[in-house]
Specification:
Number of helices: 6
CATH superfamily of the largest domain: Dimeric alpha+beta barrel
Structural class: alpha+beta
Order of helices and strands: EEHHEHHEHEEEEHE
Low-confidence stretches: 58-68, 84-98
CATH architecture of the largest domain: 2-Layer Sandwich
Largest sheet: 4 strands, antiparallel
Number of domains: 2
Shape: extended
CATH class of the largest domain: Alpha Beta
Helix content: 25-40%
CATH topology of the largest domain: Alpha-Beta Plaits
Number of strands: 9
Distance between the termini: 29 Å
């Protein structure tokens, strides 16, 4: 990506700070811009820190040792944060850019607002229509992967079981529910990592246009939910 720091222009590669780098970077960020500390206190999720490293073709000298490169990255971050003091709106934008929100796009078998038009259950569709619909779901996931906004996608079977704690030394208590035919039922979801709520709504609207019987758009309601909290990693991946 192209980066400008004051009068310096260069190409950089973005990466998430390691567990060892993050505490030092956060101390520098909060020391130069106190709203970051306030934002961290209000947030209910782990806040990632992104490091921009100049790409090899932009380095006239051999790559510096990691510690020196880290100090250089911290210096650039500090300069950038000091400039944000002059514009509160710029500071808010920078916080939003660094901490891109994740959203859950839920598809429902039933439930939600009144349908835009009546559509029979998918098990009553023609095989070709089912195939076209599933191909569209894969297309959305591939589109999200190419744009770097894909986190996860899953489809759920319609059968479900409710379960609760049965008490000490008792078996779990299960039921299908008193009125499963009238209750809300989730079909699947995408988890996306996007720059703004508007982008999440744009993607949800596109998912709503999935083809149904006869190839006509479903106009189905997509439930858009922001993920409030994400469990921080406590172990290093193997």
């Amino acid at each position: 990506m192209g980066v400008q720091v004051k009068g310096e222009h260069y190409t950089a590669r973005a990466r998430v700070a390691t567990a060892e780098e993050k505490p030092m970077l956060l101390r520098t960020m909060t020391a130069t811009r106190t709203p970051y500390d306030e934002f961290r206190a209000r947030a209910n999720r782990e806040i990632p820190v992104v490091v921009l490293e100049p790409t090899p073709e932009q380095r006239p000298l051999p790559r510096e040792p990691k510690s020196s490169c880290l100090r250089d990255c911290m210096s650039r971050i500090a300069d950038r944060l000091r400039s944000l003091d002059e514009a509160a709106t710029g500071a808010a934008h920078e916080i939003r850019r660094i901490t891109m929100p994740k959203y859950l796009l839920l598809k429902h078998y039933r439930g939600g607002p009144e349908p835009h038009r009546p559509v029979p259950p998918i098990d009553q569709w023609a095989p070709a229509d089912v195939e076209a619909h599933m191909a569209f779901q894969h297309h959305i996931s591939e589109l999200l992967e190419r744009s770097g906004e894909y986190v996860d996608a899953q489809a759920l079977a319609p059968a479900r079981t409710w379960v609760r704690y049965g008490g000490p030394e008792a078996a779990p208590v299960t039921t299908d529910g008193p009125h499963p035919e009238t209750s809300d039922l989730i079909a699947g979801w995408w988890i996306i990592d996007v720059e703004s709520p508007e982008r999440a709504l744009e993607l949800a609207a596109y998912a709503s246009s999935a083809p149904g019987p006869g190839g006509e758009p479903l106009y189905e309601w997509i439930d858009v939910r922001e993920i409030m909290w994400e469990r921080p990693h406590t172990t290093e991946p193997e």
